[in-house]
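Quarterly update from the structural biology core.
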Amino acid sequence: MAKAWDVPRFSMNGPFENSLRQVLATRFDEIFVYEHGARAGDPDAVHDMRVAVRRLLAMIAVFKARLPYGELKNYTRRLKKVAALLGKVREHDVYLRYLEQRRETADCEAVRHMRIRQMLRRNRRQAQLRAELLRLKPVQFRRDVFAILAKGV
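Predicted structure, tokenized:
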């Protein structure tokens, strides 16, 4: 799992709003650095993006009272959808890794059949994830969210 990025220019002595905005910006950037790999189906990128999305959603939940949450609700909902799809793809990756480890000790034909079935399911979920990430338009998504935050944090 990728370590959370340090927040540049973070200060406990500065205005709360500036610090919160900087933390949220870092968490957004952390998510979208993994987007290309996640769209391509790289299991590590899928996992790291999922963790990064969950970190951001946790930050939003913790500071909900200080954020213009009503305006952010649609964006948060879309991030939750991405997180759910990343989770589904990740579940298949974990199961496929498990099957790979058991291939030597189990009935090879049965494991091969289960592996093929899991790959097909994973590919369907991966296609859903790829489509959702394309709909999300990350650069515009981040710009829109930060326009809202600039008004209300």
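The CA atoms of residues 34 and 146 lie 20 Å apart.
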